[in-house]
């Protein structure tokens, strides 16, 4: 009877071990499937990340190009501004010279007018003296 009991316990232990083994294998399979899903998600995430890196690189490159184009335009505008300033200074100097030339002409005309007035008054005085002598 003790032998039968031992056999029953052994059979129960074997049955329990078989059930545990089955559950273990099911859990292993479940974990393996979960691992495969996680690997697939990881690969998908890595691919997405790489895509984002590429897109970011393209956007960065495009932005660099835009910034460089804007920088070149700014340089061009600055150069045009400097040319305009130089042109303005030159025109201003020309106008100042013209004003001085015109002022010199006006001064010369006033001097000539003063000379003409002086000669006129002299001649007038001479004519008055001559007229007085004639009278």
Automatic annotation (TrEMBL):
Residue ranges the record marks as coiled coil: 24-98
Keywords: Coiled coil
Source species, domain of life: Eukaryota
Protein name as it appears in the record: Uncharacterized protein
Species for this entry: Amphora coffeiformis
């Amino acid at each position: 009877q003790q032998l039968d009991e031992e056999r029953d316990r052994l059979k129960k232990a074997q049955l329990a071990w078989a059930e545990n083994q089955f559950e273990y294998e099911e859990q292993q399979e479940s974990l393996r499937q979960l691992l495969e899903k996680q690997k697939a998600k990881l690969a998908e995430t890595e691919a997405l990340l790489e895509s984002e890196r590429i897109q970011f690189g393209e956007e960065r490159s495009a932005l660099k190009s835009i910034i460089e184009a804007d920088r070149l335009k700014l340089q061009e505008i600055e150069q045009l501004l400097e040319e305009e300033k130089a042109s303005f200074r030159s025109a201003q100097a020309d106008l100042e010279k013209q004003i001085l030339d015109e002022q010199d002409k006006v001064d010369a005309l006033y001097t000539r007018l003063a000379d003409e007035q002086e000669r006129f008054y002299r001649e007038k005085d001479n004519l008055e003296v001559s007229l007085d002598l004639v009278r």
